[in-house]
Write a structure and sequence with these properties.
The complex is a heterodimer. Chain A is mostly helical. Chain A contains two helices and no strands. Chain A has helices at about 25-30, 35-50. Chain B is α/β, with parallel strands linked by helices. The longest helix of chain B has 27 residues, at about 385-410. At the A-B interface, helix 2 of A face strand 1, strand 3, strand 4, strand 5 and strand 6 of B.
C-alpha cells in the first residue's frame, strides 16, 4: 500500500486539490494495469523507497545503485 | 567543548549566513525527538585538479577558490586514515550500506592509482557492509585500461554530458578551449559494451536554458544510460541564473519539454529528477538534493583531510562548505553537530516563512539548499529557481493526475 497522496495545505490555507486517492490500493497492481512506462518507473521507485523510511538523499544524481 | 578550529569556522560562517549559523536553535528540535541521520554517502576528493575548464564549474569558477591551497592528490596517510574512519563509522552504526564516491577535480587523473584506492576500500569494507563505490568523471580519460580497473573493483561510473555536441562543447572544454564531446561519446560507447554495462552508472546533464530540451533528451537517450539526471546550474540570489530573453521560468519551461519527451517515450530511461517529482507527489520520499525534504546524509573529505559539506556550497561564498573538522583528527559523526549539516536534515523546519505558506513545499522542499543563499541572511529563503520549480512540478502534477485517476478506476473496477 502507498502512503496518502499529497493534498497538503500551506499555512495560509492555500491548498492543492488532491490527486487520486490511492492509499487503499496496492500500487503494484496499479502499475501492472497499464501505467505509462515513465509513470510505472516512478511508481516502482515509490515502492522500493518504502524500504528506506528516512528517504535519505544520495550524494550524486548520476548513479544507479 | 567545541574545538578551536571548528569555533573559528563557525564564527566565519555566522558572518556569511545567519541561517543556520546564528539562528538555528537545535535544542528544541532535539527536545522534540529529532535525531540526526548518520552519514551514508562519503565523497572523497582523491584529486584536486581537473583536465577540463568547464565554464560553470562550482569548484574552479565560483566564489570559493580553496582548491588552490589543498594538495593536488590526497596523500597516502590521509587516504589510509579516511578508509580506517569509514570502517569504524560503519561498525559503530551497524550500517548495512555505505556509498563512497571517488571525486575531484577529475578523479581519473589518478590513473592506475584509482584502482588501488578502490581495492583498499573493498578490502576494508566489503566484509562490513554493502559497499557501493562510484566515480564521477568528465569521461575524457575513460579508456580500456581504466575501464578494466573500474570493472574489476566494481566501481560505478557517472559521466557528465550536457546534451548535443554544440551545447556540450560550449561549456565542457579543455584548458585550451577545445570541446570534449567526441571523447565523452567514445567513453560512453565503452561503458555501453556488454562487459562494462554493470559499471555504467548514468549521465549527469547540467541544464542550459537556451538549449533545445528535445535534442538534449534524444542525445542523452542515444547513449543508452541506465539513469539520467538533470541538474540546474548552481546559482543563488546574489548570482541568479541567466534567464534568456528575460523569460520568467526558462528552466521550468525547459524541464517541461524534456519531461514530455520522457513521458511519451515507450522505453524511457530512468530520470531521477522527474521520478522524484512523481514519487513526492504520491507522498513518497525524494532522493536527490534538488527537490524534496529528505535528510542529506553526505559529507566530503577533501585531499587535505578536511571534512566538509557538499562542495556545491562553494558556489555561495568562500568557505561555505567548511566545518573545521579533519578526518585525521575527527570522526565522521562530528559533522552531525555542524549547523549547516543539521539544517539539511530537519525537513520543513529549515524552510522560511514564505516557503511554509506554500502548498508546493513538501514536493519542492525549498529546492536545492545551495540555491537558497542570500548574502548575510543565509539559506532560509525560497530557491532562486522557485518559479521554475513550481512550473515543472505543476505540469507533472497535472499530467499524472488524470492518468492515476484512470488507473485507479481500472483497479477498482
Amino acid at each position: 500500500m502507498v502512503t496518502k497522496p499529497l493534498q497538503d495545505a500551506g499555512t495560509d490555507g492555500d491548498q492543492w486539490a488532491p490527486l487520486a486517492e490511492v492509499s487503499d490500493l496496492p500500487i503494484s497492481e496499479i502499475v501492472t494495469r497499464g501505467a505509462d512506462p515513465a509513470l510505472a518507473l516512478s511508481m516502482q521507485r515509490l515502492v522500493r523507497s518504502l524500504d528506506d523510511p528516512d528517504g535519505v538523499i544520495s550524494a550524486f544524481s548520476s548513479f544507479v545503485s | 567543548m567545541i574545538p578551536a578550529a571548528v569555533a573559528t569556522i563557525r564564527a566565519e560562517q555566522q558572518e556569511r549566513a545567519a541561517w543556520p549559523y546564528r539562528e538555528l536553535d537545535v535544542e528544541p528540535l532535539r527536545g522534540a525527538g529529532w535525531r540526526p541521520v548518520p552519514v551514508r554517502d562519503v565523497i572523497i576528493k582523491v584529486h584536486q585538479r581537473c583536465n577540463l575548464a568547464c565554464t560553470y564549474c562550482y569548484v574552479y569558477q565560483h566564489e570559493d577558490q580553496s582548491w588552490e591551497d589543498r594538495p593536488a592528490v590526497m596523500p597516502p596517510e590521509t587516504w589510509r586514515t579516511t578508509v580506517d574512519k569509514l570502517a569504524r563509522h560503519v561498525r559503530r552504526h551497524g550500517m548495512p550500506q555505505l556509498r563512497v564516491i571517488l571525486h575531484g577535480g577529475e578523479p581519473l587523473l589518478l590513473g592506475a592509482r584509482l584502482g588501488e584506492l578502490a581495492a583498499d576500500l573493498r578490502t576494508a569494507l566489503d566484509g562490513e557492509c554493502d559497499l557501493q563505490i562510484g566515480v564521477q568523471t568528465n569521461g575524457v580519460l575513460l579508456r580500456e585500461r581504466m575501464m578494466a580497473q573500474l570493472r574489476t573493483h566494481r566501481v560505478k561510473v557517472g559521466v557528465s554530458v550536457d546534451g548535443t555536441k554544440p551545447d556540450h562543447d560550449r561549456h565542457r572544454v579543455t584548458h585550451g578551449g577545445r570541446g570534449t564531446f567526441d571523447k565523452v561519446a567514445a567513453a560512453l560507447a565503452l561503458l555501453g559494451q556488454e562487459e562494462n554495462r554493470a559499471s555504467y552508472g548514468g549521465l549527469l546533464c547540467t541544464v542550459a536554458a537556451d538549449t533545445d530540451p528535445v535534442a538534449t533528451y534524444r542525445t542523452l537517450r542515444a547513449f543508452d544510460p541506465p539513469l539520467i539526471n538533470f541538474l540546474l546550474p548552481h546559482a543563488n540570489w546574489e548570482h541568479p541564473p541567466p534567464r534568456p530573453d528575460g523569460t520568467v521560468t526558462p528552466y521550468g519551461d525547459w524541464l517541461v519539454e524534456a519531461f514530455e519527451c520522457w513521458y511519451r517515450d515507450p522505453e524511457p530511461p530512468r530520470i531521477q529528477f522527474f521520478e522524484d517529482v512523481i514519487v513526492l507527489l504520491l507522498g513518497g520520499k525524494g532522493t536527490s538534493e534538488q527537490i524534496g525534504l529528505s535528510p542529506a546524509a553526505l559529507v566530503v573529505v577533501e585531499t587535505d583531510g578536511a571534512i566538509e559539506q557538499v562542495d556545491a556550497l562553494k558556489s555561495a561564498y568562500p568557505g561555505a562548505a567548511a566545518t573545521g573538522l579533519d578526518i585525521r583528527h575527527d570522526e565522521l559523526d562530528a559533522v552531525l553537530d555542524d549547523p549547516g549539516v543539521i539544517a539539511r536534515q530537519i525537513g520543513l523546519a529549515a524552510l522560511g516563512d514564505e516557503c511554509a505558506r506554500c502548498p508546493v513545499r513538501r514536493v519542492c522542499g525549498g529546492g536545492h539548499y545551495v540555491h537558497r543563499y542570500r548574502a548575510g541572511a543565509g539559506f532560509r529563503n525560497p530557491s532562486v529557481y522557485c518559479a521554475d520549480l513550481k512550473r515543472i512540478i505543476g505540469h507533472i502534477r497535472g499530467r499524472i493526475a488524470a492518468d492515476i485517476a484512470d488507473l485507479t478506476g481500472k483497479v477498482e473496477g
